[in-house]
DNA sequence: GATGAATGAGTGTTCATTCAT
DNA sequence: CATGAATGAACACTCATTCAT
């Protein structure tokens, strides 16, 4: 079996185990067993637990950002782009719960070394959102411009809300990615004030999404204890 | 030295160490040393690492909810109450960064046993926010009412945004609790849509806050490694 | 409360705990709690775990030898004396199971220091039995005399059989001290050879034993775990 | 070095240490050191102190029963079979004093879990002896038969006496397995009564035993303390 | 390329023992 | 006389990591 394939299997197993147990509680033994290889092979290919975790973070961070990037429909107005990006985001996190736990929960918990990996990904997403907000302000001929610091805070709040909603959607049965995205768009774009007076945000016209998107969220079987 | 005092010292040390290292990476040796006592005494008073962590969570969860409860100014309109509550929340988390890390990061990462403790606290806060949203809808004579499921999602998004902003404010120099609260109020209440057209939310008139609130945030010295 | 009484309470508790747990597994905490006193007091009166165990052994060894000595009816033939002594022995061990476990099981397991204490008691009993055998030989005008080494072995076998039967009687419901003694007398005095040909040993005439002897054996309540 | 061999080395060391120190006082460190391996390897192969002790008991119980079974000469009268079985028993216990201590002393002292392992072995031996007694009764045309309860007690007494004599022979210099067996046969078969009148039991004719049997008993060097 | 065999270093936890009061 | 407070030393157990083959 070629090395590249074996490596991906190991990373798959590692994401599963790290996602469910956390960095420290995960054991290399369990990862090797789940990957179906011997422990020395894991070390041969991936050097150390540290490096293995880093590799997981990198792979999953890239997968997530590419999923979002691919999901954003070009040519729409800023709110339409945000809407489509959020749908892609919630869909991806729902389908890869262990990866999401690794990125959002565990990677930020164990040392700067890992946190910076995630921070890079997050910064990319925040930058994308920041652009959208700025573009929206331009479209609205807002003058004077929103101060940059304010925009940074708004982008942070939006991304933070999205992350929390991803956790919530993952933990709450019956909440689909689409619903989560709609809730967030209402909340963020219209604002509670407008919602009170019956002026909600509504999604732009768009082509039908791919068939998988509305499918029930993949739920990875929990790892057996003992 | 009386037992009650020693116990609080131990909890102080434990929150520090758990907050910085995480549950698994924290060692009872380090906690005991930081508390200035021997390890057996920690076990005599707090039974086990598990129980010690639970005790930390309980104490800090209670401290946080009471800080928020005490910070909410009664008699104001819903947005005013939310505003004051958020200020208290950001102030408390900024002043107790390790406690906030324990509650928001580590407690949710290691087993249902701990997660439920935090979930109870969080549910209390979400319930408070839910009431505020409902009250705001009533005040606005909104008709028909917002569906309950939608309100739950909105409250979740608001609390999630607040939590993320607390992390962000803690990690970003120069962001005060007041600024974080203002950003979130703008984002959540006015919404990005209104912000684009220059209709931001603005804080209600209120008495001056206590002197400590604007003070520089206490930054616990990081624990030396090695 | 006078010191002597307190000391006896402590020894009572210690015998209970040592008997049920063994020397190493017994904890001074549990002994002190069962005795109803604080731990330092146990140390004040009895110095150390070692000394406490030794004190238990000495007290119970003396109690057992005195019970046997008091039970032997003087003026009888050797087999009658042996019979009455065995009855006293089985009665005492049945009524004091923890003490018997301490002496027979635990004291011989943990270091010469304790073993010699028990060996002294045992030597006394073996000497008594040796005398009986010699006396029986004299009564029977056995000539030439049994060699001394042979007598020592026989006494040892008899005492060993008695000890094992005490364990067996303690572990088997429905076996009384009297039955155990009768079985042993048959076995030892008549021998299997005679038993096969229908010539069992039978007890001599004797006055009624004290009322307590046939009573159900005291069963100390087992110590609660956890 | 292959696993099976290492495992036996570990069990050898464990029997030594458990036999000399007892279950609780034995430390895994000492066992590992005596076996010439590191502690983790002991755990890798034998799981836990509990399981290690159980493995020792099982191995030694099997070794003892097989030694006795192999030692019993078939085709002899009951007393001849008992005689040969006892010789094998005393020979085996004398050659494996630590194993005998584990089985007879320590395994019965620490929890039902271990006691049942030994009880199974003991039950097998008691059953064998019971058969012999019944066969002897049959040969002697004894009528009416000995009651079953009585036979159980006699077998118990015989086995108990054998066990105690094994301890005694192990502790007393100059007592060979053959002597111990002879003493017990005299005691048990002829009975003290007959011995007094000069009617001892005498061994049946048999082929010469193997050369090892009369050899000086192997005395394992005691483990150095400190 | 792949693994069975092996370990150094560290973890949570317990217990006999001692003071200051 | 009696105890609440405190600890040094040890133990069972685990894990990331490395060779020889």
UniProtKB/TrEMBL annotation, chains A, B, C, D:
<dbReference type="InterPro" id="IPR009057">
    <property type="entry name" value="Homeodomain-like_sf"/>
</dbReference>
<dbReference type="InterPro" id="IPR054129">
    <property type="entry name" value="DesT_TetR_C"/>
</dbReference>
<feature type="DNA-binding region" description="H-T-H motif">
    <location>
        <begin position="27"/>
        <end position="46"/>
    </location>
</feature>
<keyword id="KW-0805">Transcription regulation</keyword>
<feature type="domain" description="HTH tetR-type">
    <location>
        <begin position="4"/>
        <end position="64"/>
    </location>
</feature>
<dbReference type="InterPro" id="IPR050109">
    <property type="entry name" value="HTH-type_TetR-like_transc_reg"/>
</dbReference>
<feature type="region of interest" description="Disordered">
    <location>
        <begin position="196"/>
        <end position="226"/>
    </location>
</feature>
<dbReference type="Pfam" id="PF21943">
    <property type="entry name" value="TetR_C_46"/>
</dbReference>
<dbReference type="Pfam" id="PF00440">
    <property type="entry name" value="TetR_N"/>
</dbReference>
<keyword id="KW-0238">DNA-binding</keyword>
<protein>
    <submittedName>
        <fullName>TetR/AcrR family transcriptional regulator</fullName>
    </submittedName>
</protein>
<keyword id="KW-0804">Transcription</keyword>
<feature type="compositionally biased region" description="Low complexity">
    <location>
        <begin position="211"/>
        <end position="226"/>
    </location>
</feature>
<dbReference type="InterPro" id="IPR036271">
    <property type="entry name" value="Tet_transcr_reg_TetR-rel_C_sf"/>
</dbReference>
<dbReference type="InterPro" id="IPR001647">
    <property type="entry name" value="HTH_TetR"/>
</dbReference>
């Amino acid at each position: 079996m070629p090395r590249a394939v074996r490596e991906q299997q190991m990373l798959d197993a590692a994401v599963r185990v790290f996602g469910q147990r956390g960095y420290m509680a995960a054991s290399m033994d369990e990862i090797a067993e789940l990957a179906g290889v011997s422990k020395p092979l894991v070390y041969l290919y991936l050097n150390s637990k540290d490096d293995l975790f880093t590799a997981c973070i990198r792979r999953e961070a890239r997968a997530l950002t590419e999923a979002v990037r691919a999901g954003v429909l070009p040519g729409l107005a800023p709110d339409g782009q945000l809407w489509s990006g959020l749908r892609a985001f919630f869909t991806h996190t729902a389908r890869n719960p262990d990866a999401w736990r690794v990125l959002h929960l565990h990677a930020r918990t164990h040392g700067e070394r890992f946190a910076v990996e995630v921070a890079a990904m997050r910064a990319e997403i925040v930058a994308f959102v920041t652009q959208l907000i700025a573009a929206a302000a331009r479209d609205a001929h807002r003058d004077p411009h929103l101060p940059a610091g304010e925009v940074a805070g708004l982008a942070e709040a939006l991304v933070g809300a999205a992350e929390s909603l991803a956790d919530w959607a993952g933990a709450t049965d019956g909440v689909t990615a689409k619903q989560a995205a709609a809730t967030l768009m209402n909340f963020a774009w219209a604002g509670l004030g407008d919602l009170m007076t019956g002026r909600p945000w509504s999604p732009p016209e768009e082509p039908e999404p791919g068939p998988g998107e509305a499918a029930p969220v993949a739920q990875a079987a929990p790892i057996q204890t003992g």
